[in-house]
Amino acid sequence: MIRPGSTIGVLGGGQLGRMFAMAARRLGYRVHTLAPEHDTPTGQIADVEIEASYDDLDRIRAFARGVDVVTFEFENVPAAAAAAAEEHAIVRPNGRALEIAQHRVREKTFLTRLGLPVTPFVQAQSAGDLAAAVQRLGRPAVLKTAALGYDGKGQIRITDESDLAEAWHALAGREAILEAWIDLDRELSVIGARSVDGSFVCFDPIDNVHRRHILDVSSAPAQVASQIAAQAIDATRTVMDALDYVGVLCIEFFLTRDGRLLLNELAPRPHNSGHLTFDACRTSQFEQQVRAICGLPLGSPELLQPAAMANLLGDLWAAGEPNWGAALTLPDVKLHLYGKATPRPGRKMGHVTALATTAEIARSRVLEARAALGQQN
Ligand SMILES: Nc1ncnc2c1ncn2[C@@H]1O[C@H](COP(=O)(O)OP(=O)(O)OP(=O)(O)O)[C@@H](O)[C@H]1O
Ligand SMILES: [Mg+2]
Q: How many C-beta neighbours within 10 Å does residue 141 have?
């Protein structure tokens, strides 16, 4: 067991690391963070902030020597950096989980081998491959970079009008994957935690609504049949066991209009859809991550009340500083801000969470709070 009082190292400096660091500090741990920027959301909460490139393996090694366990809040840490950290500290989750989740083709191939259903896909490494892939999957489809995509970046919809040469050109020769476009009923996520001894605890599925490929609103409990929920949880356990995973992992699912559950992607870390667990669950996803990587018993994932979360993107700043007072006067709404100095369109700046008697009411509360933030001061 890595006892309270020990030091946890976090590679990455964003809001996931920030909320992780808050949970870790509450349990009496020290937190060091390394990221290529200064005054990061995580760094503002950590005991020590190191500004270094993930490619600077000597700095990564020195960072690992100074901590008891290393984890990630940013999944695109290069494999070489994870390996360098592993020379000097325990690294959880392991490098293999990271390597699989970093690459859409590897990820889908791995899931398919486990017998889990994924979106139909074809790898594309050239313009010629793309034409053949469109032949196979039909239109509409979506072309994505195989690596380094997030919040819908590096994705191009292929419709009847699309020019394939142009689409290929837009990805600038990066390795890609073509996915069939799924007629979605809804999107779900499941966040699981697995400890060193293989014990597994899971939050119930969360409903997610995306806008322009970015998560917009999440709510729990998800409004799905219990047999779909059970299937999603089983799949999460299967994936985590297969990876001998230690930590928190999120799986994003598509539920098709004809009732099939498909795995969309893996996030080897706490997830935006789980932000509501901070206010609404007995143990948050961030505390669960601390417990899992430190070998502490996992906590209860019980949802204390139906809840919803709405993201606050930089767009909200378009007409000036949001009206904090208007949202803070709503009694069942909690405001979370990430300490980012510069709001940019599409940048995740914070979120609001509401608890209510039903998930539907909680959803309307967070939308109301977000609308209030947009009103003139
Ligand atoms: N094949 C598809 N069919 C239908 N919708 C899709 C498909 N692929 C992506 N989308 C939509 O775009 C969203 C983002 O896609 P995806 O999860 O692959 O991207 P990402 O850039 O990795 O996003 P994030 O890291 O924010 O989860 C999905 O949640 C879904 O709403
Ligand atoms: Mg996604």
A: 26
